Amino acid sequence: MAKKQTKKAEVAPEVKATNDMVEVVIEKPKPKNPKWEIKDRVYNLKGNKRPISRMIKSAGIYWFDEEKGYERELKYCQNQRTPFVDEMTGDQRLEHIIFRNGSLYVEKSKTTLQKLLSLYHPDKNKLYTEYEPAKEAASEIEILELEADAIVIARDLDIDMAEAIMRVEKGSGVSKMSSKELKRDLLVFARNNPALFLELAADDNVQLRNFGIKATELGIIKLSNDQRNFLWGSNDRKIMTVPFDEHPYTALAHWFKTDEGMEIYANIEKRLN
Predict the structure, then answer these.
(1) Fewer CB atoms near the end CB (10 Å): N or C, the chain?
(2) Could you give the CA distance from residue 120 to residue 74 in angstroms, rounded to a whole number?
C-alpha cells in the first residue's frame, strides 16, 4: 500500500514577539544642494544713486553655517577656490570688491566671487542686489496684471463709486469735476496706483464716507467745529457723536451700518435725491 504523501503548506515566516523592541530606522535622503549655475552675473547697488565707485567689504565678514553650527569667516582672495577662510590653503591675496557706476559685472570664470556675493555676503539685498531677469520679469508681469485688473474695474465703475474713490485721492475738488474729468482721473489713478485703487474699490466704507461728505457739502448735515458731533443742518439737532481719536467721516460711515444709522442714511438719501 502506497504511503499517502502529505504536502507541507508554505507558511509565512512568523515574527516572534520579544521583550526587546526593534527600531527600524529609515534613512531619509539628504536634501541635495541646489546646483550652482555657471553664468555671468551682474550686481547692482540698491537705490537710485550710481556713484563712480563704491567698495564693499571683501574681508572681515562672517556667515553663520547652520550645518556646522558656527560663524565662518569669509574673504575674497583671487588665488583661492573658496571664500571660506577655514578652507583656504597657501597664500591669501586679498582682492577688493568695487562697484563702478552702481554695478559690478562678474564673469562666469570668477565662481568664488560670485558665490561670495550671491550666497554669503551679509550686504546682499541690503546694499546691493543680484540682477535676475526671470524674477524681475515675473515681478513685472504681476504689476502689469494688477494694472490691467485695476483699469478694467475703473472702466466699469459707476459714477458714484468713482467719485467716492477720487474724493479719497483729491479731496473736495471732485465736486467741481465733470463726469468725463472724473472718469479720466479715475483711470489714471488706477493705472498709476493699482494696488491702492483695488483696495479702495473693495472697501464699502469709501462710498459711505463719500455719502456723508456730500451730505455735509450740501448742508443736509454738518460737523461741529470741534469735530465731535454730526448735526442736522436745519435745526442743529445731534445725529451722532464721533468716537475719540477716530476720523469723523470714517466714524460716520461705520455708524451708517447700525440700525439707527440706516434710518438716518435713508432720510439723507431722500434729501439728496
Answers:
(1) N
(2) 8
